[in-house]
Specification:
The chain is 26% helix and 24% strand. With 339 residues, the protein is of the alpha+beta class.
């Protein structure tokens, strides 16, 4: 029997707040055409930050994949194939569980960032690193809400079921993010809106933007058996705690960042060298030298007291800072006066 190439509308039911929402997967439609060009982004960047380089985490989103290239990028940067076998509710539970397990490894005490100290290095993978920036005026016309999920799916069609689930999770996080007392947050879909939120949250338009070094691979680093030694530590912000904004790339067909401020913080650039382990056959898979940005949250009194981090440290929330490395896809904003 011949194979017919047809556009098939696939109705998928996703539970949402007790209701069922029909989703059109792979429906006929076109991706939003108004992607921002590299020249447009550079022009904006130089207008607000003259003679300053654009962070690599922003530059990574400067081209829009299409056709077969888009499908390859999707398979690389979205959920694994196993998520296709999960219901939306189970997928969300699995995602939260996996994130919590991973986050336990990703947390470090500030004392770890001392020259000569050794650690098992964990840096999370960069998510959707090559999804392209939309033009700022285009983002205002996209109804970014789970209530408009069908419309959003059609706008970015064709998308896979796995990507659709990820899009729902991202939109849900933007609408109902986990809150820490005093946290400011926003989801942004353009460089202009990201810059605008950072300026508003930090109370100044005089900003500096940073991203972690290209030494950090897109897939992150997880080294349960490979030890790294801290070779050097440089304070990016003033030693006294300062307010900063961190923007995390989220899974979405276009560039979307979850930006938040959990202040005060101290920011470090940490250079690490891999310890040589001749008996470890996996050592060659990890970089020999890594330069990465680390964020230390100083006021942790409102942090989750059930984290194993506190048990391992022998402390309670509010008694010690909590630090983590930024991924390849994160952008850090700080006032120019402290950076």
């Amino acid at each position: 029997m011949g194979v017919l190439l047809l556009l098939v509308s696939l109705l998928v039911v996703v539970a949402a707040g007790g209701r069922c929402v029909p989703l059109v997967i792979g429906a006929e439609g076109t991706t939003v055409p108004s992607y921002a060009s590299t020249s447009e982004l550079n022009a904006y960047w130089q207008s607000v930050f003259p003679n300053r380089a654009m962070p690599s985490a922003i530059l990574d989103h400067c081209s829009a994949p299409s056709g077969s290239e888009r499908k390859v990028k999707e398979s690389e940067h979205y959920w694994s194939v196993y998520s296709d076998q999960l219901t939306k509710r189970d997928a969300k539970i699995y995602h939260n569980w996996a994130h919590r397990i991973a986050s336990e490894k990703l947390l470090y005490p500030e004392s770890a960032f001392t020259a000569g100290s050794k650690m098992n290095l964990y840096i999370d993978r960069a998510v959707a690193l090559h999804s392209a920036w939309l033009r700022h005026d285009t983002t205002n016309s996209i109804p970014m809400s789970t209530k408009n999920f069908t419309e959003i799916i059609i706008t970015f069609a064709p998308v896979s079921l796995a990507m659709a689930r990820d899009m729902w999770s991202t939109l849900s996080s933007c609408e109902h993010p986990r809150e820490v007392a005093g946290e400011q947050k926003a989801c942004t879909m353009s460089v202009q809106s990201m810059h605008g939120f950072a300026a508003s949250a930090l109370g100044t338009s005089e900003l500096r933007a940073f991203s972690t070094s290209l030494d950090v691979p897109e897939e992150g680093i997880g080294s349960p058996s490979n030890r790294y030694r801290v070779a050097a530590v440089r304070a990016v912000t003033a030693k006294a705690a300062a307010n900063t904004v961190t923007c995390h790339s989220m899974s979405f067909p276009a560039a979307l960042f979850y930006c938040h401020a959990v202040n005060p913080t101290r920011i470090y650039e940490v250079t690490l060298q891999r310890e040589k382990e001749d008996s470890d056959v996996t050592v060659s898979k990890t970089p020999a030298v890594v330069r990465a940005l680390a964020v230390c949250h100083v006021n942790t009194s409102a942090f989750d007291p059930t984290l194993m981090y506190w048990v391992k440290l022998g402390r309670k929330p509010g008694e010690a800072s909590v630090c983590h490395f930024l991924t390849r896809g994160d952008v850090l904003w700080a006032p120019a006066s402290v950076a």
